[in-house]
Design brief:
Length: 150
């Protein structure tokens, strides 16, 4: 994973937190980061309005400007589930035999069980620009795309 992709991947967590805040979407079906382009797919029941998208972008960039700490730590699975419940999971399951979880947390924003590398501080991410989202009605999935500005 290049440094750029570490930033892009970290931005996925920031955008996810913003989408949860604005839309109330909870479950993420997939995340993807390639170069400065990122994408996350969340379960949602309709196409968001332009206003909502603008809010997601604004909230995400606010979190970047804040320079929030990105915390990474390991926790026993049972203990983590007791603390954070299923909020830390995505739709793709963590295999049952995994007993020690790597967790990434942006306080008051996003908590996720995640094995990837992350920046230490959201300020390192830079400006996030959302692209046009795709909504698949049949699967109730909303694909949110974004690019990091160089
Ligand atoms: Zn991650």
């Amino acid at each position: 994973m290049s440094d750029e992709e570490v930033r892009t991947h970290s931005a996925v967590h920031v955008v996810k937190g913003a989408a949860q805040k604005v839309l109330g979407s909870k479950w993420t079906a997939s995340v993807h980061a390639s170069g400065s382009h990122g994408r996350l797919t969340v379960q949602y029941d309709r196409r968001p309005t332009d206003q909502e998208l603008a809010s997601i972008e604004q909230e995400a960039n606010r979190k970047v400007s804040e320079g929030a700490e990105v915390l990474e730590f390991e926790m026993e699975r049972q203990e983590a589930e007791g603390h954070f419940g299923d909020a830390m999971y995505d739709l793709f399951p963590v295999p049952g035999e995994v007993t020690l979880l790597k967790i990434v947390r942006i306080p008051d924003w996003n908590i996720n069980c995640c094995n990837e590398r992350h920046v230490d501080n959201t300020a390192e991410i830079g400006r996030i620009r959302l692209g046009k989202p795709r909504f698949r009605n049949s699967k109730r999935e909303l694909e949110i795309e974004f690019d990091l500005e160089a």
